[in-house]
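A quick aside before the break. I want you to see a complete sequence-to-structure record at least once, exactly as it would be stored in a machine-readable document. Don't worry about memorizing anything.
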Amino acid sequence: MTTETPRTDGALARLARFCYRRRRLVLLAWIAGVVAVALVGFGYGAAPDNDFTGGDSDSARAQGLIEQHFPEQQGDTLTLAIKAEKGIDDPAARRKIEKVIAELDAAPITGPVSSPYQDRTLVTKDRRIARTTIPLTDKDVEKTEVKALVDTVKDASSDGVTLGLGGDKAEKAETPKQGSAESVASWRQR
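That is the input. The structure line, written in tokens, reads:
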């Protein structure tokens, strides 16, 4: 049995030695890169000719097909999370859950909402936890419109049934604007 000695002349080994010997420089370069990405993310320093639309990528073509053939699902999605202590089939829990799903389905900014009562894959085996996806009909849904949905779901939680709305748009709808009186008050309470 022969044992191999690790190769020390490869490109990766040379890069590792370079980074180790100049670790302070590498750390500063890494920090500068993180700061640059953060500034671009906040709208500072972004080049005006950058195009992040996806161009001719597979995902851009897929999004085009969705927009063309399923216009009711052009926006982002929200996820309704459901927890029922007695199970979602308990009559009181079921009435509450179906009422919320009907309200979400009837909202002008949502597409068709699937019921966990119709799709078994949306429910855990013990039937106490369920979820469903709520498609938004527009990419640029107003924060206040999504906040109304979040409030509807929150208000329905009681009597052993906990409902929550998740997703990027729901999180943004619940987050007060930076610098607003609500934001300042929440920071003071911490």
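Two observations worth writing down. Residues 11-41 form one domain. The first strand starts at residue 77 and ends at 84. We'll return to this after the break.
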